[in-house]
């Protein structure tokens, strides 16, 4: 009679279904990729806690708009009660929970071992990426690598923060598994994590750990095309256009597209950073105008650097309007709210695919590309005394940008190149903190040049969301200074 | 030896009963009665004759020296010692140890209403019935308060052994009786009994002459109580304050009159009910066939409902000890539905816009107002068909007189189809008197939903019944196996021709918009029941039962639901024999555990969200994710109920009454608990068993009945229930917000220490009369926009400003008291009955008044006259109510009311006349349902059905209706 009482869910995939259907595990992995579309992961909140928090960008928009949220990121005055931080925290942990659920069930799939290994590799790559962002945002965080039983939900041990080192150990372990088990580009569908993606991500993690030799080895293999064929895209500006999606330079990016529901994109990623009507207005604007390129970034470009015009939309003074690459004409400054906007976040409504919903314009987010691998390789090479190799890396990027080749190289030159090459690509805030670790005083100085006060021992990380601390019953502790 | 003869007749109609078994007790000697009920038999001295027949109570008569013995056999159910259905068996009413209320079929049939539940209102203590006037609406029943927030709160219905949650398929005329198990007696239904159990038993035939019965009534329904809206002048005057920028001199059409929008959309609806039954039986069988046709047009134009019911209840004696029976019914409901949203639009629509001229509609939306409700009604065609086959097949075997073995197969098969077509129309001069506005439907659309469900229940019971002198012992043992399976398929398309013959999905445009869906549900239960009752010398009563329920809905499958009860018939005691005041006095007490499993089938199981998109190789790929945290130990809600009662009759059985006290505590009630985000739950909360509720109350029933020697009879009855509901513990769960009223947000909050669904709003303490009053006073919102004439709110927390933190609890929709008064008179063939129903102490929220879409929404005439103006300052009613007016006590009104539920005057033709016409009975009557209501509420009706957390809010409610009908009962 216990058999009779077993009534499986109808029309729903239960946990048990995974062990019968080879596609079920595959679908769960797809579900982990899907969470990269969440706003709290890569959307407006993420823009705020990366670009706007860094010296690359200002809050933008009107003075009052988002002053209590994005404004506090811009000024490094954020408090633990800011909702965006809670949203980012929650979304990354939701992503980790999805990954853990998938990892718990993949072993019971009837799929072949190699398939299971690849799926596990993909999920562990994604989980590592999620934890890497979390540890850079918040420092040590609760480390969940399995699905906790529901009875354990109030167990303080689960809610307590692991150390930063413990989190990094887990990230490295996940990425090593991914490096071993993922196929190279071309042997798997575009958009899936590849061996090179895992190697590049692992290299970046080692970069934060100052493990120069590992950084060098991993990036060197990628550059030598030992993990798939990669090359720099000749036209820098094209990297962020539809023509540059999944290009030869791309190592990992968030895939988007058009579907019937028109939800296959990161919500308001494009529109939050789009040019905003102001002054005389009189036009249907392209966005909210947040994350505007800063004076500090502007000053960092060398003359004639083609990357400047490719990264920044400059709003021309009256009477000239600004014509974008797709022919779209933005009115002159007297009808526009801000001086500059992020060109890398622009998605053409007229020349690139979309399904008409401006809040969900399908722009792939570039997470890792060969350009950054060259920068990591160069930095490791300098650290290891291989300056010639570093010079070759940097000059490859400079040559694409229309700049003259350097003849000498040092860490400072690599970092300057890194800032320009990766401007507004959500890396700068984390990178400054990392540089501070290598060369103390660096972040303080950079933020001072940006007109903001960076407090050492506090601003390396964001505050832990206040309500999460409350829900944990105090098991979760606040970061120093908040 | 002696020869004995006589005639056996039915007690109810004095007709001869053919085929009655007449047996000398303890022997095989016997005979049966002839077609006229006559019998003749030779017996020994001292013999006892036993008269028995299906459907009748067995009677024993000692012969003694008699040669003529005439016997009247009573119907089983109309026995002197009333029998009450208690679930898997019956009990004599006097032997009950629990609180079980009963209503007879004849009481139910008197009312021109669709469902028996409506007829229960005002009749039973502890049973609150909330109904609106919508055709085919299922009235809500609350037995002894509301004991849950997130699981079900409606009772379980049991129709001839079929467990269901909807009895709209049952014709009132087919019902023999309804029993409501209010206390722990319900534990015999275990995990589904916490909200009480309503047992419906349908009629059976009686052996004897074939009887044909025709019952009908025809009537008119009209809106019972409408709210008078502002006229043209009042409205324009209001607009100058509420929407000063609106140009009222240039609306879409310059119309000089006032449009009465309710008058335009409502009508008098016709209703009718026709039922024919044929019943009877022979020696070895009885039958009852019936067919009924019920129609109700409803008072909103385009609304209508028809129901066909067919029933066949048969009983066949296969052998001396084996009986087969069936109770089977088919019903078809056919409804043209209306979108209740239009009702709200009627309330809002500007009276200065014409409703309709010829085929063209007034364009209210062009005036910055809501859409034209008449057009909405006209453009939408929803047809809901519901076919249902319900019933049981049973085999009964009585190997010995004291032992009954019964197996029954009960089934309930439902097919339903819901098809909605919305025709296309533009905001142009073809549709409207003047073009413009935003009310248009560019594409026609068709939505279709077809579903089926099958429930079967197999009961196997063994019942032992032994009588020793005046003591009786019964023992029941049984198993119940149940399986429920449902599935639906639905789809929608656009651009379908406006022709009912083309309303199929295949004709829609597949490229533009399509949705297809399908789903299902599966539940199984396995249960074991046992019950023992014992009555000693008719004085001491004892009852105990236990049900073990295994349910597929929970990981911990098995639950155990015991009850025990005891009674003491004090009037049987020797010391009571000397008094003559009391005829009967019983004290009883019961205790038990009841469950509530109205929880989604797989609420405890981790399931994957499906069709989550991502792109690989630039191709859409659909994934899945397991993300909701589930309480894998999720359990049924557990209600412990204690009841003590006193039953009495006195003054020669003229006055009878019943007094009960109950205390129901629900533990393990569902609530949401917030969990840390690290667990990854999308809404960061999960459903678990942590809350507790309590319902405590008193019930009193008093009935006076007397027949005078001159034939004048009258009865006066009353019942009242006092209930106190409270959420006694949230235990870490979060307070539940519900009852969304437009821009005001949630207006109810269910929190610790408060009744479920309490209104939680700002306290409006008057109206600002001058700017100087405003200056320095705490205000809501932007101080600069507060003007004299605006509502003033209490600064409860004293922080100098009015915010959401200043809200207070102001009562709930649950009445503190509800009561019924029933009056009956009969004299010389005339009968007059009146039923009054009322409740007190509940609050309602005037949501329709609070919910302002636009500042141009119309207002009520009473408010137009009462509102604050500079020249006519009011201390109670504000200048304007706009979309910025927050939820406050200004919108909370008393829900108390008293209503004359039913008034019926009937005349039964004299027997002499009828015999000539060969009628058995003939009665004609006039009846009025819901004749008048005395209420304090300014809205349509304070009787507002709703969920446990958000009832009592008047938003889109259907107008309550008043019915006048003439009826006929003819039997031959």
Summary, kept brief:
Chain A has about 475 residues and is mainly α. Chain A has helices at about 20-35, 40, 45-50, 70-75, 85-105, 115-140, 155-160, 165-180, 195-210, 210-225, 270, 295-300, 305-310, 370-385, 385-400, 410-420, 430-440, 440-450, 465-470, and strands spanning about 15, 55-60, 250-255, 290-295, 310-315, 320-325, 330, 340, 365-370.
Any chance you could write out the topology, listing elements then pairs?
The complex is a heterodimer of chains A (482) and B (972).
Chain A lengths: L12 E2 L7 H13 L4 H4 L1 H9 L4 E4 L9 H5 L8 H23 L7 H26 L17 H4 L4 H18 L13 H14 L3 H12 L26 E5 L14 H4 L17 E4 L1 H6 L5 H6 E3 L7 E2 L5 E2 L9 E3 L22 E5 H14 L3 H14 L10 H11 L6 H11 L3 H8 L16 H6 L11
Antiparallel strand pairs in A: 2-4, 3-9, 5-8, 6-7
Helix pairs in contact in A: 1-5, 1-6, 3-5, 5-6, 6-8, 8-9, 9-10, 10-14, 14-15, 14-16, 17-18
Chain B lengths: L1 E9 L10 E4 L5 E3 L5 E6 L4 E5 L6 E4 L8 E3 L9 E3 L4 E3 L7 E5 H5 L6 H5 L6 E4 L9 E4 L12 E4 L2 E3 L10 E7 L15 E6 L5 E16 L8 H11 L18 H5 L3 E13 L3 E12 L7 E14 L4 E16 L3 H8 L7 E2 L2 E2 L11 H7 E21 L2 E20 L22 E24 L2 E24 L19 E23 L3 E12 L6 E12 L12 E15 L10 E10 L2 E8 L10 E14 L4 E20 L10 E23 L5 E17 L6 E5 L5 E5 L7 E4 L2 E4 L3 H4 L16 E3 L14 E5 L4 E11 L2 E11 L2 E3 L1 H4 L10 H6 L25 E3 L2 E12 L2 H6 L4 E15 L25 E11 L1
Parallel strand pairs in B: 1-7, 13-16
Antiparallel strand pairs in B: 1-4, 2-3, 2-5, 5-6, 8-9, 10-15, 11-12, 13-14, 15-16, 17-18, 17-50, 18-19, 19-20, 20-21, 21-24, 22-23, 24-25, 25-26, 26-27, 27-28, 28-29, 29-30, 30-31, 31-34, 32-33, 34-35, 35-36, 36-37, 37-44, 38-39, 39-40, 40-43, 41-42, 44-45, 45-48, 46-47, 48-49, 49-50
């Amino acid at each position: 009679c216990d058999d009779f009482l077993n009534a499986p869910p109808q029309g729903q995939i239960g946990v048990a279904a995974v062990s019968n259907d080879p596609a079920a595990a595959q679908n769960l992995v797809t579900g982990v990729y899907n969470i990269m579309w969440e706003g709290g992961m890569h959307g407006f909140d993420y823009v705020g806690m990366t670009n706007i928090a860094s010296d690359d960008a200002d809050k933008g928009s009107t003075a009052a708009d988002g002053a209590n949220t994005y404004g506090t990121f811009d000024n490094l005055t954020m408090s633990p009660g800011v909702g965006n931080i809670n949203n980012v925290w929650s979304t990354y942990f939701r992503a980790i929970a999805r990954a853990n659920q998938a990892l718990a069930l993949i072993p019971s799939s009837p799929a072949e071992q190699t398939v299971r290994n690849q799926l596990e590799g993909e999920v562990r790559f994604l989980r590592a990426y999620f934890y890497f962002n979390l540890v850079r945002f918040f420092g040590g965080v609760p480390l969940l690598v399995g699905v906790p039983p529901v009875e354990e939900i109030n167990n303080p041990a689960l809610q307590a923060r692991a150390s930063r080192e413990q989190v990094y150990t887990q990230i490295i372990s996940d990425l090593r598994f991914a490096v071993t088990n993922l196929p190279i580009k071309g042997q798997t569908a575009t958009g899936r994590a590849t061996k090179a993606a895992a190697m590049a991500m692992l290299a970046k993690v080692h970069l934060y750990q100052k493990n120069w030799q590992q950084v060098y080895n991993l990036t060197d293999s990628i550059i030598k095309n030992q993990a798939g064929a990669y090359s720099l895209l000749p036209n820098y500006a094209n990297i962020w256009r539809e023509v540059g999606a999944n290009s030869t330079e791309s190592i990992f990016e968030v895939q988007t597209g058009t579907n019937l529901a028109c939800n296959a994109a990161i919500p308001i990623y494009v529109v939050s950073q789009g040019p905003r009507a102001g002054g005389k207005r009189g036009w249907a604007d392209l966005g909210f105008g947040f994350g505007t390129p800063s004076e500090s970034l502007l000053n960092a470009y060398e003359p004639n650097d083609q990357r400047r015009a490719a990264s920044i939309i400059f709003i021309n003074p009256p009477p000239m309007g600004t014509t974008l690459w797709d022919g779209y004409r933005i009115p002159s400054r007297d009808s526009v709210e801000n001086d500059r906007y992020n060109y890398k976040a622009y998605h053409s409504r007229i020349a690139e695919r979309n399904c008409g919903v401006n809040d969900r314009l399908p722009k792939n987010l570039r997470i890792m590309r060969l350009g950054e691998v060259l920068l990591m390789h160069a930095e490791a090479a300098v650290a290891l005394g291989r300056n010639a190799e570093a010079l070759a890396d940097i000059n490859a990027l400079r040559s694409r940008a229309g700049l003259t080749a350097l003849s000498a190289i040092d860490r400072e030159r690599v970092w300057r190149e890194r800032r320009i090459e990766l401007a507004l690509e959500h890396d700068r805030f984390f990178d400054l903190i990392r540089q501070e670790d290598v060369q103390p005083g660096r972040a303080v100085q950079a933020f001072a040049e940006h007109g903001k006060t960076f407090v050492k021992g506090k601003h390396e990380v964001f505050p832990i969301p206040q309500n999460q601390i409350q829900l944990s019953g105090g098991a979760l502790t606040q970061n120093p200074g908040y | 030896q002696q020869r004995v003869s006589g005639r056996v007749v039915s007690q109810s109609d004095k007709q001869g009963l053919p085929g009655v078994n007449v047996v000398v007790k303890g022997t095989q000697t016997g005979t049966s009665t002839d077609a006229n009920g006559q019998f003749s038999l030779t017996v020994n001295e001292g013999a006892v004759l036993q008269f028995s027949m299906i459907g009748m109570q067995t009677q024993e008569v000692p012969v003694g020296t008699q040669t003529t013995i005439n016997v009247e056999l009573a119907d089983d159910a109309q026995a002197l010692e009333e029998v009450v259905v208690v679930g898997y068996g019956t009990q004599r009413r006097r032997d009950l140890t629990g609180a079980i209320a009963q209503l007879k079929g004849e009481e139910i049939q008197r009312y021109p209403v669709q469902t028996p539940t409506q007829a229960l209102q005002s009749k039973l203590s502890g049973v609150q019935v909330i109904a609106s006037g919508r055709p085919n609406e299922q009235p809500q029943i609350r037995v002894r308060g509301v004991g849950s927030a997130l699981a079900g709160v409606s009772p379980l219905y049991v129709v001839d052994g079929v467990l269901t949650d909807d009895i709209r398929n049952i014709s009132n005329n087919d019902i023999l009786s309804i029993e409501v198990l209010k206390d722990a007696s319900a534990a015999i239904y275990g995990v589904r009994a916490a909200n009480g159990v309503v047992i419906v038993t349908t009629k059976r035939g009686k052996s004897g002459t074939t009887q044909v019965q025709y019952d009908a009534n025809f009537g008119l329904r009209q809106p019972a109580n409408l709210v008078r809206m502002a006229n043209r002048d009042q409205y324009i005057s209001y607009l100058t304050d509420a929407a000063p920028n609106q140009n009222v001199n240039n609306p879409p059409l310059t119309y000089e009159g006032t449009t009465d929008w309710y008058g335009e959309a409502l009508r008098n609806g016709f209703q009718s009910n026709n039922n024919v039954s044929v019943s009877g039986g022979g020696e070895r069988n009885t039958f009852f066939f019936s067919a009924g046709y019920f129609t109700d047009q409803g008072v909103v134009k385009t609304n209508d409902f028809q129901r066909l019911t067919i029933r066949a209840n048969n009983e066949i004696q296969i052998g001396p000890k084996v009986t087969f029976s069936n109770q089977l019914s088919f019903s078809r409901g056919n409804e043209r539905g209306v979108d209740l949203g239009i009702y709200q639009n009627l309330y809002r629509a500007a009276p200065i816009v014409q409703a309709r001229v010829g085929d063209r509609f007034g364009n209210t939306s062009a005036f910055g107002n809501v859409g034209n409700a008449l057009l909405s009604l006209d453009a939408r065609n929803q047809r809901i068909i519901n076919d249902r086959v319900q019933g049981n097949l049973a085999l009964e075997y009585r190997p010995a007189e004291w032992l009954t073995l019964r197996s029954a197969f009960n089934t309930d098969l439902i097919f339903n189809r819901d098809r909605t077509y919305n025709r296309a129309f533009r905001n142009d001069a073809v549709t409207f008197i003047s073009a413009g506005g935003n009310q248009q439907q560019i594409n026609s659309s068709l939505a279709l939903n077809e579903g089926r469900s099958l429930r079967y229940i197999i009961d196997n019971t063994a019942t032992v019944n032994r009588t020793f002198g005046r003591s009786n012992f019964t023992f029941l043992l049984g198993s119940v196996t149940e399986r429920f399976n449902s599935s639906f398929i639905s789809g929608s398309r656009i651009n379908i021709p406006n022709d009912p013959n083309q309303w199929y999905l295949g004709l829609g445009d597949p490229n533009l918009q399509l949705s297809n869906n399908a789903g299902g549900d599966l539940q199984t239960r396995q249960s074991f029941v046992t019950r023992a009752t014992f009555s000693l010398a008719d004085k001491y009563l004892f009852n105990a039962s236990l049900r073990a329920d295994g349910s597929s809905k929970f990981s911990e499958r098995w639950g155990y639901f015991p009850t025990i009860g005891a009674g003491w018939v004090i009037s049987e005691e020797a010391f009571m024999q000397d008094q003559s005041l009391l005829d009967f006095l019983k004290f009883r007490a019961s205790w038990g555990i009841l469950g509530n499993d109205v929880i989604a089938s797989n609420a405890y199981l981790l399931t994957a969200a499906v069709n989550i998109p991502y792109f690989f190789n630039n191709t859409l790929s659909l994934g899945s994710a397991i993300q909701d945290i589930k309480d894998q130990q999720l359990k049924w809600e557990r209600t412990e109920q204690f009841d003590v009662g006193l039953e009495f009759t006195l003054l020669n059985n003229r006055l009878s009454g019943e007094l009960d006290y109950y205390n129901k505590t629900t533990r393990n009630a569902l609530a949401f608990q917030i969990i840390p985000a690290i667990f990854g739950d999308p809404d960061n909360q999960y459903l678990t068993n942590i809350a507790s509720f309590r319902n405590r109350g008193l019930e009193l029933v008093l009935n006076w009945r007397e027949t005078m020697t001159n034939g004048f009879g009258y009865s006066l009855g009353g019942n009242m229930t006092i209930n106190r509901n409270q959420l006694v513990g949230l235990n870490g769960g979060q307070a539940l917000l519900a009852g969304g009223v437009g821009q005001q947000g949630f207006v109810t909050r269910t929190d610790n220490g408060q009744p479920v669904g309490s209104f939680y709003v700002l306290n409006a303490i008057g109206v600002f009369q001058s700017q100087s009053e405003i200056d320095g006073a705490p205000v809501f919102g932007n101080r600069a926009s507060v003007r004299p004439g605006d509502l003033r709110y209490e600064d409860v927390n004293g922080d100098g400003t009015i915010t959401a933190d200043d809200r207070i609890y102001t009562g709930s929709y649950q009445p503190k008291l509800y009561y019924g008064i029933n009056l009956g008179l009969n004299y010389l063939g005339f009968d007059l009955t009146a039923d009054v129903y009322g409740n007190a102490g509940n609050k309602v929220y005037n949501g329709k008044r609070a919910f302002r879409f636009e500042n141009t929404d119309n207002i009520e005439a009473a408010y137009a006259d009462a509102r604050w103006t500079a020249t006519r300052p009011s201390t109670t009613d504000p200048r304007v109510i706009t979309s910025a007016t927050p939820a406050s006590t200004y919108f909370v009104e008393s829900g108390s009311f008293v209503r004359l539920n039913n008034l019926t005057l009937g005349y039964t033709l004299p027997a002499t006349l009828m015999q000539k016409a060969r009628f058995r009975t003939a009665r004609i009557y006039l009846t009025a349902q819901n004749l008048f209501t005395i209420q304090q509420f300014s809205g349509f009706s304070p009787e507002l059905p709703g969920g446990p957390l958000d009832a009592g809010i008047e938003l889109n409610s259907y107008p309550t209706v008043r019915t006048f009908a003439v009826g006929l009962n003819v039997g031959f």
